[in-house]
Amino acid sequence: MDTATADLQSPHPWSLLYADDVCLSETENCLALQTQTQAWKDRLSENGMRLNIKKTEYLECGPQTNSAITIDGEPLTKVAQFKYLGSLVTSDCETLPDARLRVNTAWMKWHQVSGVLCDKRIPIYLKAKVYKSIVRPVALYGSECWPATTKQALHTIEMKMLRWPLGLTRLDRARNDDVRKQWGVTPITDKMQEARLRWYGHVVRSDKNSIAKTAQQLDLEGNRPQGRPKKRWMDRIKDDMKAVNVTPEDALDRKKWRKACKIADPASRDINR
Predict the structure, then answer these.
(1) Which residues pair with 102 in a beta bridge?
(2) Do residue 51 and residue 28 come from a single domain?
């Protein structure tokens, strides 16, 4: 498919291909995107492939209009949000829906391993390993690309997941820091900061023609609306670098950057011993 559509592909990030998933973007108007999509459909048909129109969705970012896209006379489904490669993309560019998706997915994973996490016969340091290797990575998936922290949602579910196996409720008035010490777990918000800085280091060291570097340097037309502007990804990265006292030039040294940004989990304290 990549070879057959080579002349139809726009420079990234306007055309993104991953396996059989294709994302087409257009900045001019709806008609241009319809023409582009129709050309892809015809080219795929010429090479024995088929564009599934029922599974193809159309998302309009920013102020919504009554525009529509039709392929061979059949309209595409217009949505306000859709999932692409595990992350939720919305028309208003908000990250909170994606964070809520991460919360629900993390709870599903937690319930799958709850037989281990809630077993009183298993020492807590083993439970902590299960949580840090299975549950927490699911909750943090894609968080390194969020422009805002949305930390409250993930912080809340983490504390519920850690308190439940210990049999603790709010009536016990156990401090969050004490609960984390028992598990040997650093706050999930700190791990989000580590993930953002780790990914930023990859972007800085990447080739100038890479998708990540192109997206970082992308300068879109138009003005930001009046009022307090939304926090951008680079605004958050600057705050993170200030917190750990590093500069963008430090990212060129992989070992130095990793050491400065790494936030290790503390040693767990096994309360069953």
Answers:
(1) none
(2) yes
Peptide bond into 137 cis (omega under 30): no
Report CA dihedral (151, 153, 158, 161) to the nearest 10 degrees: 180
* Co-location of 104 and 181 in the same domain: yes
CA distance 175 to 190: 18
- pTM here is 0.82
Over residues 214-231, the pLDDT tens digits come to 888 877 777 777 777 777
Q: Which residue has the tokens 């020492």?
A: 123
Q: What are phi and psi of 16, to 5 degrees?
A: -125, 130
Q: How far apart are CA 264 and CA 145, in angstroms?
A: 21
186-199 exposure pattern, b = at least 16 Cβ within 10 A, e = fewer: bbbbebbbbbbbeb
Render pLDDT for 25-49 as a digit per residue (tens, 0 to 9).
887 788 888 999 999 999 999 999 9
Q: How many Å apart are CA 147 and CA 230, to the nearest integer?
A: 9
Instruction: Identify whether residues 120 and 155 lie together within a single domain.
Output: yes
Evaluate whether 201 touches 258 at the Cβ level (below 8 Å): yes
